[in-house]
Design brief:
This protein is an alpha/beta fold. It is about 60% helix and about 10% strand. The chain contains 11 helices and 5 strands. Helix 7 (about 160-170) crosses helix 9. It is rod-shaped. Mean pLDDT is about 85; it is low at about 220-233.
Length: about 230
């Protein structure tokens, strides 16, 4: 069986030599190349085809988290399986590394575990640390919340209160004639409102536009206001 070929990108030369010697003692692992700067790695990923099965990538190179971008470059250029190396559990950097395409990471002080991690990566069996996995899930949830908030704000900026009421009635199944009667306006005015709404939201139909507003939760807010007004009456 051919050994697993490994490329190491690490700027601590003493640690690099020690790691290479340690991995080369494993009968099924072979360090075929080492690099110590981000510039060397970029040049290699750009200029040559992959000759490594697994890349060990230091997150911090010359005091910059350059390894994150290099991990993405290694993936795009080589399709390489990248394992990040870090001196401490820098959660943000590790999360960004996974976003860039890395499949695992290892704390340098626990280098004895690297052979098994490399074998798992080569076999496409990543063992993402549970704490990082949870942070990834939490970050995803945070991004989804921000995305929702942005869409709500965008909708509020685009749609007038009257247009929102028209959409809410459409969502409830009312016809344009019924909406005109409800607001004491002409059918032509309702059609103009609907035309403006479709143009603003880029929706193919009024029902589609109404569904978008419902999914953003804007109708629920409108309902609570209307209920309050009726109670005052």
């Amino acid at each position: 069986m051919e050994p697993i070929r490994i490329l190491i990108v690490e700027d601590d030369l003493d640690w690099l030599r020690g790691l290479k010697a340690f991995l080369d003692r494993q009968p099924d692992l072979q360090v075929i190349r080492t690099l110590s700067t981000a510039e060397e790695a970029r040049e290699l990923f750009t200029a040559s085809e992959s000759d490594a099965d697994v890349v060990l990538m230091d997150i911090m190179l010359q005091d910059e988290p350059a390894g994150i971008g290099l991990a993405e470059q290694a993936l795009l250029a080589w399709g390489a399986k990248v394992i990040m190396l870090t001196s401490m559990e820098e959660k943000d950097f590790i999360f960004r590394s996974f976003q860039a395409g890395a499949i695992d990471y290892q704390i340098k002080s626990r280098f004895e575990e690297l052979p098994d991690i490399i074998r798992g990566a080569h076999a496409r069996k990543a063992s993402i640390n549970a704490a990082v996995a949870e942070q990834m899930r939490e970050e995803f949830r945070r991004l989804k919340r921000l995305e929702h908030q942005f869409k709500v704000k965008e909708a509020r900026d685009l749609i007038t209160p009257t247009e929102l009421q028209v959409l809410e009635m459409i969502d409830q199944g009312h016809t344009q004639t019924e909406i005109a009667s409800r607001f004491f306006i002409s059918l032509r005015t309702v059609k103009i409102h609907v035309g403006h709404i479709l143009k603003k939201l880029g929706s193919p139909s009024s029902k589609d536009a109404a569904q978008k507003m419902r999914e953003l939760g804007l109708f629920e807010q409108g309902n609570s206001t209307q209920t309050g007004d009726r109670e005052k009456d």
